């Protein structure tokens, strides 16, 4: 799964072929989507979508079964909209029992093979991606009457966290009534699911149709309308299923340190700190007021700006530039976000009258100049975040003529390393590729704003994503001798509600141990340094070292110091305000065939033990070196076995689920760990019986 994180969907043509004694091949083609299944006299037997999301990585499969029920040969189309960041991993067609499997070919070769197939009267098509956003997949195959065609498309995407939530969207457009229409979304997050919800994005027509089942770490969302429920009206033959099906969720997080996962020779680090004070902002808003912005676009931009300006605080500095063929500044200098300045800025925005051409080049250069002036005058807090937010709906038409790459070069030349550029492209005809390139080259991102009734909300939502910067200059590092092929690990900014993800390969495929170091600049703590070491999961949390190992012991533990007791629940022992330990009473079902009530021993990270500490738990304060290798099948299919090397011993360990009661004292959290057998023999020093005393005071010297 993690290996797929580094893959990217290249803009190439796909050709599908099957190896058989007939040497048949077939291709398919991608363009603008109208319906999922297209063609006259076509019977759609089923339309199914299944997504499996594990640790924020989604695998989606779209399947459709159709029949040419006409009296003559015709083309059957299969169109699917996919998220822009997704990449197609496989596509197959089964035509009358013959399966055609997709493969990647160079564009010219694919076209030639397609032409040859059509010339011979064979079933053929071509698969092509949209050159601008790669958002639509469309296939078309020409088949004889009575033919049955089954389409199956697979794509993957890494989930993005925005405003504290992961959003998984599926475009459901079957094109007609379908006897079997079903959408299943499975979510598995080992750390736990905080919440899961399905906004009613398909409309009130389907209110109550979606069902959700949810446990601590798993969720299943199913949408399965009957044919009658699919109808636009009781007697309609048109389908009301035409839109976006949305699943939103977030995961539980134990701390600001992040989450490091290792699996199958790969790793992924998730970093999403919270509870930090937002950094102050220095923003120059650059607004396109050319003639093409006239009407609804300008009205919605102004409406959004009214809300955005209200969000500014006295610690923020801002200015506004509006441009057409000329460039105008509301203020040549950055001003504080006081109520007086905000009110003046609102009046200026409301009096804008769109007309003329589009001089993006001079507008952005002027914005950089304003930020540079403030920087040189010492106005800006060194911990603040400086950004330019560009809102435009068209191509550059004035100033630098024409090529956009010249504008990119001009902007990149003058932008300081601490400045970022965010681009918002309004409408369908905007040169979004240009806006995206110029943003990404200058430490920002771009987003398309669709010019419809809620464009204002789209603008405000985007601003919400970047309005609360929490960290600057974030670096996540790993030991050079431990990893390779690391994705981007240096980030200019971290915004509230988002998430940083770094992935890579383990050099030693036999180990699941990895340490990461995260440094960043925050508002009150100039350098935030987090260290995490991961080796699966454990009942032992040793400082920042997470060596996840389990073993069972049947012992009684007694300590005579200051004791706090919660009746029939727990005992907390505190020693000199530096060491705290808790013993929890865990009860099991009285009629359980073999499990009995037991005590769980818990020691927090902040305990200040001496370097000579020992004992059953104390011996792990000084972390032993642990290696796990030779992973193999065990006696039970779901429980792998491996060899663990620790303290000069080689032990056989078993992979399995155990309970961790550090955070959920009542139900516990399911954790996946390596289980050491024989009461920890070979893992603990000596024999477990050495840690059992016959009397409470037997460890004391005789009087």
From TrEMBL:
| Signal peptide positions (record) | 1-20
Q: Name one GO molecular function term.
A: serine-type endopeptidase inhibitor activity
Give the residue spans that cross the bilayer.
534-559
Q: Which residues form a coiled coil?
A: none
- The answer to whether keyword Transmembrane helix applies is yes
Tell me one GO biological process term: hyaluronan metabolic process
* UniProt domain VIT: residue ranges: 28-157
Q: Give yes or no: UniProt keyword Translocase.
A: no
Q: Which domain of life is it from?
A: Eukaryota
- CDD domains per UniProt: vWA_interalpha_trypsin_inhibitor
List keywords of the entry alphabetically. Glycoprotein, Membrane, Protease inhibitor, Secreted, Serine protease inhibitor, Signal, Transmembrane, Transmembrane helix
Among SMART domains, the record links this protein to:
VIT, VWA
GO (cellular component) term, any one: extracellular region
- Subcellular location(s) of the protein: Secreted
Domain VWFA: residue ranges: 282-466
Q: According to its UniProt record, which protein family does this protein belong to?
A: Belongs to the ITIH family.
Q: What is the protein name for this chain? A: Inter-alpha-trypsin inhibitor heavy chain 2
